[in-house]
Amino acid sequence: MVRPNLLRRVFAKAFRGLAGGGGRVGLMASGRKLRQCDVQRPQPGRFLGCVKHAGEDRGWLGPLFVLGMRVGVMAGLVAWVGIGVAEEKVGGAVKGKVAEVVGAPAMREPKDVGLVLTGAKRAGGEAGSADLGVLGKVVNGAEDRGMTPDMKGRAQALAHYSAALQAEVAGDMAKAFEHYREVMRGDVEEADLVRRTIALAVRHGSEAEAEAMLVERVKAHPTRPGPVLRLVEFLDAYYSGAEVEKRANELMGEVVKRFGRDADVVSAAVLRHLVKGRRDQAVMVMNGAADGEGGDAGFWLVLAGVAQEVWPLGQTEVADEHRKQVNVFYERALAAAVKGKDRARELEVAQYYVLSNQLGEAKRICEVMAARDGDLAARKILYRLYEAEELKEKAFAVLEGIVRDDPKDVSQRRLLAEVLEKREQFPEAAKQLEEAIQVGSGTAADYEKLTNLWLGLQQPDKALTLVTRAIRLFPDTPGFQAQAGMAYAAKEDLPRAIEAFGEAERLGAAGGAQVFNHRFHFRFGVVLEQAERYEAAEAQLRKSIEMTPESEGAFRANTMNYLAYMWTERGERLDEAETMIRQAVQIEPDNAAFVDSLGWLLHKRGKQAEALVELKRAEGLIKVMEPGDAEILEHIAAVEEALGKTKEAVETLKRAAALQTPDEGVAKRILEGLRRLGGVGSGER
Questions:
Q1: pTM (2 decimals)?
Q2: What phi and psi values does residue 51 have, to the nearest 5 degrees?
Q3: In angstroms, what CA-CA distances link 378 with 300, 391, 406, 685?
Q4: Of 112, 380, 428, 593, which is the most buried if we count CB atoms within 10 A?
């Protein structure tokens, strides 16, 4: 059966070019010479063969349009329809030229049909219309080409449909109607085409003529419900009155009685009742359909969709009752799908249960499909259902299985990486994300996340290799330069870290928008401070403080403490440093690092007694001293020494030395203090 709705989408585009200038728009264009060539077997959506030109090579062929179209026909046959549009330039003029599109050798097989159209352009550039007369040339010679009468009828229908589309684009609606009417006289049952033709019939003829056409179709196809449905639609749309309503009701009642297992018929009857406010009758039709036997999964799913119009699920006060009514049809669809081994329909039912918040039913279906078939789509739904139920381990096991069984599914690998990251299984997360990038090339977000994972895992070399590639792939993304800066900083390559951070800031500014936040400027400031570029570090740290949102007070306090401590160590801006440190302590009064900074600043300002109080409090805030805390003890010892408490200072330094700090500067000061105060013998180190 010819399906014009499939053709419309393709032909409409082609005929826009035909109507507007001699076939300059097409699915394939060529500017080569026409030559004799060997014929080839047609392929879907491609040049059907070669273009044979009857005659001598006359010059350059203008735009050539060739379309391959597959049309399903009865008895499993396939018709290949070719439309060729050519322009031949002869001398200084361009004229239309009929070229034969050859589908198979001598067109011997009845399933190979060639149709030819010409699009001409007159000398002087004026566009001419295509010669529709050529449409009949191949069709009329059907017997010579081995075409059966059945195939000839289909070819004629296609020819008229093509001509109708061209006439519509050209604005000749009357001519379009004539061709549409010829299509309808063929073996065509396409609702949209019939509706379009009837609308044109009313517009260019009369309602009576249109009705007669529909009645003729009903008589011509007594075993089909479609013609009757179109007639009822027409009566409802164009007529009114009790007699017409009675006639339409009788027609619809009869078609429901005869074709009650046709989903389109049931749908049309139910929706018609609803539109006319006859909900009780719509319910009656649906109940009758539900009580019937037979029907495949597709039939029951169509009815399930209609059931949601009869029993809307969005009405909260009756949601439970309506859900029970609708579920009847989905249960029938599920049973039919299982019987017919139709996994796609089973999934549709499962998805309905998910969307209607019947998660237990959805889970049951998906668990069966996963166990029985290992169905990946069902397992993906199952993963989400387990997640919704907080069954984390079961969900994780399902997701791992999906990735194992379908390793090229990049989206599932990304999801697994995300889950592993939440579970703090960072090496495994990095591995999955790395695989996702290798399989699917990787998005900018993939590169960014994996680089952050490598940085967090203290793998700066891997991070740098990855981000270097990302910079090449996404050169205008400043974030990758920032990540490169962090990787270089981790490798203690401060000059290159500063260069990368600077380039990131430049790219961000060039974009005309605020790209980087307070965290970027803090990291940049830290690297600059480590490189002893104090003024530049101060500028970045101040910017970070200014940009930090109110909701991140702890981060602002940390930045203020860092900047103030930098000034304290250098003996600069001590008043402002004290103000900043006290603000930080006010935000986090039990932060040992902040309290230590305050004590050290007081020591620098000569307030030793106050300094010792704060430093002792900082030590007391630490429950278990770790190697990094040795600096606090070193500070306490320095204040004790300043107060003349040499013995206490030595004991404090010994405790600091026992922590074995990894900070070489702090370790050196501890050892020097012990030697200076006599706490280390001549042979000790």
A1: 0.67
A2: -95, 120
A3: 20, 17, 13, 68
A4: 112
